[in-house]
Write a structure and sequence with these properties.
With about 325 residues, the chain is an alpha/beta fold. The protein has two domains: about 10-250, Aldolase class I (TIM Barrel); about 260-330. The protein is about 45% helix and about 15% strand. The strands form two sheets. It has an eight-stranded parallel beta barrel with strand order 3-4-5-6-7-8-9-10, surrounded by six helices. A two-stranded antiparallel ribbon has the order 1-2. The mean pLDDT is about 95. The structure holds flavin mononucleotide. Flavin mononucleotide binds near residues 23 and 214.
């Protein structure tokens, strides 16, 4: 069995190791992906992007959400995740992404359980419409000429394993290069223990690599799930929020937890990037999502959390964090 450091390929694209960043809606922008790469991730997948938004030239979709930092390509491939249930729209969106030369791989979301997405027939609704799922995946391949991967769940509700059959059809009929498997049903969203034995069954039977996602929160859980399933790679999601050090730890590049100084420095880097990404005002508000992860890791309590949640600008947040930075500097 290969080690998590070993390189491999997805549809002919070289991936330097097997520890990858999962797609995270509203979070997985260029700087979160770049951060994961800085700490060793072998590939990073974008937050999900609407194929309709790209097809219709929506400004925010085509600028902000398609932004890729040149340094992202340094540590291995970048994948863009698209969602949508219309094959023609997917073909057009995938072609636009490929023409821009932004990414190496297109990933398709067939696992999102959120009603806003499933009511359109996209995301996890594809489990119930495998013919459309196959048509969408074929269209993404034809439109882009890039390797296409699909991320999906084990099934719709508890006990349903339709995701396994869909994974086979996607690989065998649509030529999908790899499957990311989240062995939880759409019904439970992100709760409960993933069914790693079902993932192992898929790994054994599928004629394409399976990437595992779900419940991979620390080195022990990642190693155990990787060994138990025999997956080709692992995708870190919630475990990596405000915790890029997890990539290095899983890859054996470091053992210890980050120091307070490292955490504060990393948060500072994230704040700078958010301003670059969205400007001082929107960036300041966007960062409220990020602060709790870092504050928790610092071992700080509610007073700091709430103060940061009340900030409107990055400058306000910086002045709240200044005493902590000063204390670290003195120590
Ligand atoms: C905030 C959040 C946003 C997510 N966004 C996406 C997404 O855009 N596309 C996707 O395929 N999965 C998405 N997921 C699912 C994750 O990629 C991952 O499969 C899931 O969280 C299970 O892994 P975990 O238990 O290690 O967190 C999201 C999960 C979370 C918590």
């Amino acid at each position: 069995m290969p080690s998590l450091h070993d390189s491999w390929e997805i549809g002919g694209v070289h991936v330097p190791n097997r520890v990858l960043l999962a797609p995270l809606a509203g979070i997985g922008n260029w700087f979160v992906r770049l951060q994961a790469k800085r700490y060793g991730a072998g590939m990073a997948v974008s937050e999900m992007v609407s194929s309709f938004g790209i097809h219709h030239g929506n400004e925010k979709t085509c600028t902000e959400m398609l932004r890729v930092h040149p340094d992202e390509h340094r540590g291995g491939p970048v994948a863009l995740q698209l969602f949508g249930q219309d094959p023609d729209v997917m073909r057009s969106a995938a072609a636009t992404v490929a023409e821009r030369g932004l990414v190496d791989i297109i990933d398709l979301n067939m696992g999102c359980p959120v009603p806003k997405v499933t009511k359109t027939g996209a995301g996890a609704a594809m489990l119930k419409d495998p013919d459309t799922a196959v048509a969408v995946a074929s269209a993404a391949r034809e439109g882009s000429g890039l390797p296409v991967t699909v991320k999906l769940r084990s099934g719709d509700r508890k006990g349903d394993t339709s995701g396994v059959a869909l994974a086979h059809r996607l690989v065998e009929e649509a030529g999908v290069a790899a499957i990311t498997f989240h062995p939880r049903s759409a019904q439970v969203h992100h709760k409960g223990t993933p069914d790693y034995d079902l993932a192992a069954e898929l790994v054994r039977s599928l004629p394409a690599p399976v990437i595992l996602t779900g419940g991979l929160h620390d080195v022990a859980s990642v190693t155990a799930a990787y060994e138990r399933t025999g997956a080709a790679g692992v995708m870190l999601a919630r475990g990596s929020l405000g915790n890029p050090w997890l990539f290095s730890q899983v890859l054996g590049l470091r053992d210890d937890e980050p120091t307070r100084e490292e955490i504060l420095e990393e948060l500072d880097w994230v704040m700078e990037c958010a301003v670059q990404h969205m400007g001082a005002e929107r960036g300041g508000r966007y960062l409220r999502k990020f602060y709790p992860w870092y504050v928790t890791r610092l071992g700080e309590g509610n007073v700091l959390q709430q103060a940061l949640q009340r900030t409107d600008t990055v400058e306000q947040a910086r002045s709240i964090l200044a005493p902590l930075r000063a204390r670290v500097a003195v120590a």
